[in-house]
Amino acid sequence: xxxxxxxxxxxxxxxxxxxxxxxxxxxxxxxxxxxxxxxxxxxxxxxxxxxxxxxxxxxxxxxxxxxxxxxxxxxxxxxxxxxxxxxxxxxxxxxxxxxxxxxxxxxxxxxxxxxxxxxxxxxxxxxxxxxxxxxxxxxxxxxxxxxxxxxxxxxxxxxxxxxxxxxxxxxxxxxxxxxxxxxxxxxxxxxxxxxxxxxxxxxxxxxxxxxxxxxxxxxxxxxxxxxxxxxxxxxxxxxxxxxxxxxxxxxxxxxxxxxxxxxxxxxxxxxxxxxxxxxxxxxxxxxxxxxxxxxxxxxxxxxxxxxxxxxxxxxxxxxxxxxxxxxxxxxxxxxxxxxxxxxxxxxxxxxxxxxxxxxxxxxxxxxxxxxxxxxxxxxxxxxxxxxxxxxxxxxxxxxxxxxxxxxxxxxxxxxxxxxxxxxxxxxxxxxxxxxxxxxxxxxxxxxxxxxxxxxxxxxxxxxxxxxxxxxxxxxxxxxxxxxxxxxxxxxxxxxxxxxxxxxxxxxxxxxxxxxxxxxxxxxxxxxxxxxxxxxxxxxxxxxxxxxxxxxxxxxxxxxxxxxxxxxxxxxxxxxxxxxxxxxxxxxxxxxxxxxxxx
Length: 598
Known about the structure:
By secondary structure, this protein is an all-beta fold. The chain has 4 domains: 7-236, Immunoglobulin-like (Sandwich), CATH 2.60.40.680; 241-347, Immunoglobulins (Immunoglobulin-like, Sandwich); 355-458, Immunoglobulin-like (Sandwich); 466-597, Immunoglobulin-like (Sandwich). Helix content is 2%, strand content 47%. The strands form 8 sheets. The protein has a 15-stranded mixed sheet that branches. Strands 17, 19, 20, 22, 23 and 24 form a 6-stranded mixed sheet that branches.
């Protein structure tokens, strides 16, 4: 829709003549308004064929022309503003020099402020239209200002009013002559949506008024006339696009979601803000209450935005919609119900049937620790726990409560172990293991008494017993042979003998008492030049060690004083500590003394 209304004026009639003319016009009817030199509003009637020169007016008409319908984001649109010399009577014979030409591109009112042609502040919509850089207009060919360049500059930033300043003066010749009109062509960009409606528009559209205003001076008597006019433009919001793709299939108990993609408007408008709301329906018409809703904020303009997740509890077909809220300059948009990419089919879960193979630890004696482990296989991303239970001793049916329990958290197929348990009583112990299962996996349990789930715990063993620790002679000379267990006649040196009740590892430790000096913290150390005046003390020094594998019964060790092929004990008195240690680490010791002479 486009409209243009001229509001013209001339300011030169005295008060008495003005009142007479108003009275005459009231008697005959009105055709249009004029503003005369005194500033009062008068009307000219089409019934008068001639008007007295005393009442003649400098009259202009202004017609702004913007496109009838535009969309936010459009650029480089053709626009114009036209001003015409419409003077009457004696003024109609003279030229009119254009002294001011202003334009408010967008206003929520069609009636401008008197005297300036500006938009009332309450109806102002600055920024809806902008002029591309460089902001200029050009006089249209065939008009009075043909080829003239007009600089377009701001007058009032609060309303968006601009003024057109020509490089050379614009002179409008008398009405009905070839150069009575000047039309200026320029381009505009649609940068936003108006907030004030100057007319009636549809959804996502606002009608705004472009207000033109002109001042001109007559060459007849230097009288000044002014005029205003408007045109209406419907501005429609930019329309971003929205598409969405949801989880296509799923199972009861598994989360599903949707992802919306906000596409730029065409032509591209301001960056979209606002929000996207996702709704999920079990109704095929998307008319019932949604079973799930999720709203996300549009933070980055066009792009992808995921919804929150929803976990269905029943099977069936679910339908998503994604709705963009829109904002001040962008219209909202919604994906259609039952869109192929917005449908999720949920099926009942068929759980996997994993297996659990368990193996208990090796036999031990009382005092040793036992445990169990299980290999979970064939699951579908299993979660949950494996519970280990121990029964016994001698409870092959696993009756009653377990004497020990341990739980391992499951995170997929793999090997899981119980904690350790130390039995205090000998006997046969049986483990059981239970995988508890989850929504996608059935539970599974190992059998009681299974071959790999039994552990035999034997009675605790005592330390080896050493008896009859002797030597053939207590005072002897060192020889050249290495120590050895032998049943032969003792060689030079001595023969140590001892009796074991069981096989054991036997260790010999040879110690000697040596003189020393007592130093700090009562430590007894070897004498040196620096400590020779300290109190004397006796040190116990290990002179050497030997080890053997002893057998049950009497063991004899021939010893000539050799600790190794390169080391032997010096002459002196020694203590021999004999230690027998079994496989569990239990040990006992016996001691005797001997002397080696030169």
